[in-house]
From TrEMBL:
The keyword Transcription does not apply. PROSITE patterns: EF_HAND_1, EF_HAND_2. The keyword Membrane does not apply. Pfam families: EF-hand_7. It comes from Cariama cristata. Keywords: Calcium, Metal-binding, Repeat. SMART domains: EFh. This is Calcyphosin-like. GO terms for molecular function: calcium ion binding.
Length: 206
């Protein structure tokens, strides 16, 4: 049902965009209008731009990142968003903090069930889901492309991981943060905790 949720969420985000004036909420909605991976994708763009690995961005980098990700935001709005995140007035923002704030808020119950699913998939317990981890948990043989001979088992696993991986830097590994960011997007389209938890339990046989 994720694809349907994705579409519903994108439509909902576009609708809400016209109603909200809060600059951070507007940026969040612009990301969500691209589907569950929208926020994660912006995070990757920023990470690629962070040449010196400082995990911070100055205003110029911030604006360039938004432009690279084709977020059409005027300079005033970008300045306003930047100021909100630059709490200490240092002229730089911490992009981990930025992404956490941008992620749609989730209840503790939702975060817990997401982590349960992550731990189930992370067979080796090293905090990263890889193709190796998936072998015992996810059955590739039911995938239509495997059944008609187009894909090998590994290709099915890789495509599955790519769902959660960030769009511009698919490395076949999914971190807790990427998994959480992905489901924060899905969560935004589901109103009640109960429904979200049932969906997760069914999807991951928890």
């Amino acid at each position: 049902g994720t694809a349907r949720h994705d579409r519903e969420m994108a439509i909902q985000a576009k609708r809400n965009l016209s109603k909200t004036t809060d600059p951070v909420e507007r940026l969040r909605l612009r990301c969500l209008a691209r589907g569950s991976a929208g926020i994660k994708g912006l995070g990757r763009v920023f990470r690629i731009m962070d040449d010196d690995n400082s995990r911070t961005l100055d205003f110029k980098e911030f604006v360039k990142g938004l432009n690279d990700y084709a977020m059409m935001i005027d300079k005033e709005e970008a300045q306003e968003i930047f100021r909100i995140f630059d709490k200490d007035g240092s002229g730089t923002i911490d992009f981990d903090e930025f992404l956490v704030t941008l992620r749609p808020p989730m209840s503790k119950a939702r975060k817990e069930i997401i982590m349960q699913a992550f731990r189930k998939l992370d067979k080796t317990g090293d905090g990263v889901i890889t193709i190796e981890d998936l072998r015992g948990v996810y059955n590739a043989k039911h995938h239509p492309k495997y059944q008609n001979g187009d894909w090998t088992e590994d290709q099915v696993f890789r495509a599955f991981l790519d769902n959660f991986d960030s769009p511009y830097d698919k490395d076949g590994k999914v971190t807790t943060e990427e998994f959480m960011n992905y489901y924060a997007g899905v969560s935004a389209s589901i109103d009640t905790d109960v429904y979200f938890i049932v969906m997760m339990k069914n999807a991951w046989k928890l």
